[in-house]
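User: I'm new to structure prediction. If I give you an amino acid sequence, what do you actually give back? Let's try with this one:
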Amino acid sequence: MSKELNDHLLRLLHEAADILHRYAAELNREWKRIGEALGKRNARVQEVFSTLCAFVQARLLPYGGEHPANGHLERIAAFHPEMIIFSLNLMENTVHQVLKAHASAAAALHPAVRYLFFKWNEWLLYEVNEQSFKIGGDSSWKKESLWKDAVILFNEWILRAQTFEESAAHICFGFSYFLPFSRCALFQFVNQESTAIGLHGHGVDNGQIQRLRVELDSIPMLKESVGKLKAEVHEFRHFRPIYVPRASEQFPRLYVDLFGLASLVIVPVYVPTEGRMIGGVVLDRGSGRFFEVDRRLFPALMKFGQSAGELLLKWIKAPKKEWEGMAESLSPREIEILKLLADGASTLEAACQLYLSEFTVRDYISSALRKLNAKNRTEAVAKALRLGLIG
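Assistant: Good question. You get back a string of structure tokens that encode the predicted 3D arrangement of the chain. For your 391 residues, that looks like this:
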């Protein structure tokens, strides 16, 4: 790396460290509160989080500096990478929220914070654990850190996408191709995270996925995991994947039978800078196939989910004027028909419910497709849901 670029990146790290120092009192209070809430659920998770908070507070930068380790590094070396990533995510999320509350130019400061926590992840997961504290020649950390290669490949792959639809397709393919899964379905949350709509599927009928509109109330386990938690733990709504050994015990029979669900993994699609989940990915190894998940996959799954979230957010938060123009041009009848299509109604069923002829309904659908610049009714429904035109 050139000295000029190296100096520039170091300036970004110092800028982020200055942010942590500037808001240290509030961050410390928030991190302490989160640690106490974690302790009510899992003492081990609290230990990891509190240790990392103390270590970051002491150093502020991921390497160098004059601060003594105080034994923290030895303890961190014993933590599972999944727990390190989870704790650093919580810490980063808190920084972004504090910035939003206090800094008028918060958007310009988020990238430096993201870069700082990226380096904390890199340094604590790779350099510390693989070089400084390997015991007895144990190479397990080196094997476990191979997931970082999958993350790099995944990120490079999804960045090739040029549209929202391509992004969804690339994300699904990447989850299946770079990780040991054969089927992937991507969903977006709408209606304040009460509903999941299918965006794309890989290794499964894509049309079936795109027609899905799942009310999370029908899956209590999933509803809880996306944030319907007690107020004191609201801010760390799950970043971590959920392994479901037997889908038939957690999911409605309709979906189990339709897709042959056996075992599956659910990955949150999370945007750290926004502090919220925008969707989820469902993964399995084929119809009727039960499997046990290797938790060493979880760090990669978490990183895949974050990368997917950042990419999709770019399209979900499209230029406001463009969306507003679409919203104003759609007639009440067109919106009404799109709502029925989103609920799974056919053209004939929509016509019957609205006491219209089937030909009239087709005309309304064609008009809505043109106004939304959609290729088909599935894409039109997806866009209308993303825009909040239908709920």
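You can read the tokens as a compact description of the fold. Here is one thing that stands out. The beta strands are 183-190, 195-202, 213-215, 242-244, 264-271, 276-284.
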